[in-house]
Amino acid sequence: MDNCLITCKRLLGSLRVPHTQQFLKEKILTHPQYPSLLSLSDTLEEYRVESLAAKLGPGRLDELPLPGIVQVSLADGTYFNVITAVSESGITLFDEKGRLKDMPRLDFLKSWTGVCLLVEAGEDAAEPEINQKIRDQRVIKGVAMVCAVSLLLWLGFGIVENGTSGLYLFYFMLKLLGLSISGILLWYQQDKENPTLQKFCSGGKSVDCNSVLDSKTFHLLDGRINPSLLALAYFFAGTGLLGGSAFSAITLLAWLSLATIPVVIYSFYYQAMVIKKWCRFCLLIQGVLVLEVLAVLGGGFLVSGVDVIVVSSLLLLFTGVILGGILIKPMLGLQDKVYKTKRELSKLKSNKAMFELSLSRSKKIQDEPQGLGILLKGKNPKYKVIKVCNPYCGPCSSIHPVLESLFEKGNIDLQILFTPGNGDEQKEKTVRHLLAIESKGNSKLTRQALDDWYGAEKKDYQEFAAKYPMNGELTLQEEKIKLMEDWCKKENISFTPTLFVNGCELPEDYTVDYLKYLLD
Q1: Are 56 and 114 in contact (CB under 8 A)?
Q2: Ramachandran bin of 325, using left for φ above 0, alpha for ψ from -120 to 50, beta for the remaining angles
Q3: Number of neighbours of residue 119 by Cβ within 10 angstroms
Q4: What is the mean pLDDT of the chain?
Q5: What is the C-alpha to C-alpha distance for residues 331 and 309, in angstroms, rounded to an integer?
Q6: Edge-to-edge strand order for the sheet containing 112-121?
Q7: pLDDT by residue (tens digit) across 231-284?
Q8: Euclidean distance between CA atoms 80 and 206, whole angstroms
Q9: H-only helix segments in 203-333
Q10: Beta strands of 75-195 (E only): which ranges?
Q11: Nearest CA-CA partner of 493 in 408, 387, 343
C-alpha cells in the first residue's frame, strides 16, 4: 500500500475518525501534489481534521502532540510515519508500511528529518456522508452473507440427500476449508498491506508470505496464473462437484487429491531448502491437501469409475475460475490507473498560469453586484469569489464547505447571491431570512447560519427560522431581493451554482475543488 495512503489511514484510525478506504484512497492518489505533506494535510481537511506543518529540533520531540505525522529519511528514500507515543527511552509508531513497532529513541532521532504534521480532530471529525456509506456497506455485507449461507445450504442438502459417510462429510469440509483459505490468500495477494493479513503473514525472519507467493517458480503466463488462483480453482471445482454430483464425483476428486502429493512435497522443499522462508497460508493449504489424501485412503473413494460428464464439469469449473481470474486481474489495477490520470489532470488544472488564461477567456460580469446579497470580507483577500445559488439546490450545498474553507484561510472575499424565487414562497422566505441575518452585521452569526442551512441533510425552513428568530428585519429585505433578481436576469444566470472569480465565470473545465489549489 502507498506510504501516504497507509500513513493517513493509520492516523485516522489513531484519532478514531470514521472513514472508508475508497474515499481516502481517491483523495490521496488524485491530489495534484501527491506524494507530499500537502496531500496529507488537504486530505485530512476533508475529514475536519486540522493540521499544521512544522519543523522541530530533536529536543522538542516531547512537545509533539500525539498522534502526529513525522517524516523519516531511510536508505531508500524519505517516508512518513505516524508517531503514537514518546518516552525517554523509546518511540511507538506506525512505520512506512503501516506496521506498529517500538524503536529506541536515538534510532528514531537519527532518521527523523524534523518535519512533522501536527493534527487535531474536531468533535465532528468524520468522512463526508459516512453514515450513509456505513449503511451501504452493511447492506452489501448482509447480501453477501445471505448468498454465502444459501450456497452452503445448497451444497449441504445436496450431500445429505445422496446419503454420505462420515469420511465423505470430512472430505467435503476439507474442500470448504481449502476454498476459504485460498480465497483469503487471493485477497492477500491483492491487498498485501492489509494489517490483519500482514500480521498473520509475518512473524520472525523465517516467515514471509511474499517471498513465496512472488517467486516466479510458482507463476505461469507471466504471473497471470499464481498459486492462490490455482488453489481457489481447485477447491472451488471440488466443492461444486461434491455439492452437485455427490458420489459420482468422489472418485475423480480422490485421484486429483492423490495427484497433489508431488505439489505438496515440492512446495515444502522449496520453502525449506531453496528460499528458506515459510508462507503460513501455503502451509495451511498443504495441510488441507495432506488431510484430503488421508481421507481418500481411509474412505475407499477409489473403487468407482470416472464419469465423463463429471470430468467435463470439473474442467468447466476449474478453467472458469482460472479464466475469470486472468480477466479480472487487470481490472483490479485499472482503478489505480484512473487515479493516476485524475492526478495528472489535477496537476494540469492546478497550474495557476493556465487557470488565469482560461479565466480571462470566460464570461465577464457586466455589472458589479455592489451591496447585493451576503458579503463576507476576508482578512487578506487576493480574490473575490461570487457564488450565485439557490438555497434548495443540492450542488450549492455541496460546494459550500469548500468555499467556507477558502474563506477561513482569509485570502478571498465571498459574496453570495440568490436567484429569483419565481413565485416559490418557501424559497423566498429562506432567502429573506438569510439576508435578514446578514443585515445584523454579525459576520460570525451569518457564517454559522449559512453552515447550518447548507449543512442540514433536510432543508426545514421552520426549524431554521426557530433557531434564528427575526423580528422586523424580514420586511426590510424586499428591495434587496428585487435588486438581486434584476441582477441575475441582466447577467443571464441560467443555472446554480454559478461561480465568478475576480469578475470572470469559473470555466466549465474547472470545479470548485480546484480552487483549493489555485486561490492560495
Answers
A1: yes
A2: alpha
A3: 24
A4: 84
A5: 33
A6: 49-55, 112-121, 68-74, 77-86, 90-94, 100-104
A7: 889 998 888 887 766 566 788 888 888 998 998 898 888 888 887 888 888 888
A8: 27
A9: 209-213, 227-245, 247-259, 261-269, 280-299, 308-332
A10: 77-86, 90-94, 100-104, 112-121
A11: 387
In Å, the largest CA–CA distance within the chain is 97
Write the secondary structure of 450-513 as one string of H (helix), E (strand) and C (coil): HHHHHHCCCCCHHHHHHHCCCCHHHHHCHHHHHHHHHHHHHCCCCCCCEEEECCEECCCCCCHH
Do strands 498-501 and 504-505 pair parallel, antiparallel, or not at all (unpaired)? antiparallel
Burial of 122 (0-12, 13-18, 19+ CB in 10 A): exposed
Domains in the chain: ranges and CATH: 2-121 (3.90.70.10), 146-332 (1.20.1440.130), 364-519 (3.40.30.10)
Amino acid at 275: I
Question: How far is Cα 95 from Cα 53, in angstroms, rounded to an integer?
Answer: 19
Q: What is the pLDDT of residue 158?
A: 60
CA gyration radius, the chain: 31
Burial code of 156-193, b = ≥16 C-beta within 10 A, e = fewer? eebbeeeebeebbebbbebbbbbbebbebbbebbeebb
Q: Which of 71-75, 161-165, 223-227, 423-427 reaches the highest mean pLDDT? A: 71-75
pLDDT band, residue 502 (cuts 50/70/90): very high
What pLDDT shows up at residue 310? Answer: 80
The residues that bridge with 101 in the sheet, in sequence order, are 93
Rounded to an integer, what distance in angstroms lies between the CA atom of residue 320 and that of residue 7?
Answer: 38
- Which three three-digit cell numbers place residue 150? 444459501
Answer yes or no: is pLDDT of 160 > 80.
Answer: no
Angstrom distance (rounded) from CA 509 to CA 348? 11
**413 half-sphere exposure, CB direction, 13 A CA radius:** 12
| 370: Cα separation from own chain's centroid | 43
The predicted pLDDT at position 164 comes to 57
Q: Beta 498-501 vs 383-389: how paired, if at all? A: antiparallel
**Dist. CA 379–CA 400, nearest whole Å:** 19
Beta carbons of 431 and 391 less than 8 angstroms apart: yes
Name the residue among 179, 185, 181, 164 with its Cα closest to residue 295.
164
99: its cell numbers:
506496521
Give residue 1's pLDDT: 61
Helix (H, G, I), strand (E, B) or coil at 80: strand
Between the alpha carbon of residue 518 and those of residues 104, 342, 374, the distances in Å are 42, 17, 23
Banded model confidence at residue 308, pLDDT cuts 50, 70, 90: confident
Q: How far apart are CA 240 and CA 248, in angstroms?
A: 12
Give Cα separations from 278 to 168, 179, 269, 271, 326 (angstroms): 31, 20, 11, 6, 26
